[in-house]
Amino acid sequence: MSDFAWALSRMTAIGDRVVLDHTGLNGTYDFELTFEPSKMPTGAEGPGTATGIEGPSIFESVQEQLGLKLEAKKGLVEFLIIDHVEKPSAN
After folding, report:
1. Lesser CB count within 10 Å: N end or C end of the chain?
2. Is 69's pLDDT higher than 60?
3. pTM of model > 0.70
4. Of the candidates 82, 75, 73, 66, which has an alpha carbon nearest to the alpha carbon of residue 33?
């Protein structure tokens, strides 16, 4: 499930959010998830729905098809800040 959370974090359907695995589930799982990738979230309150698009959002799909819930929460996450970049020297 940690790999699934990592993959969800990198999807544009999640927006700029980081998905953390708090399921407590261990092991390997094989599943299919069907959703409409063009339905985007609308802020930290929760998922949004674009008008005129058929099919469930990623948030609806995870809950309906897998029985898991994506919840928006504030918390600490690890990230990397690059302050300066230079080309390597010729030596």
Report:
1. C
2. yes
3. no
4. 66
9-13, 21-25, 49-53 — which is least confidently predicted? 49-53
CA–CA gap between residue 91 and residue 17 (Å, rounded):
41
**Residue 41 near residue 59, CB atoms below 8 Å:** yes
Q: What's the pLDDT at 53?
A: 58
The DSSP string of the chain is -HHHHHHHHT-GGG-S------S---S---------TT----STT-----TT--S--HHHHHHHHHS-------------------PPP--
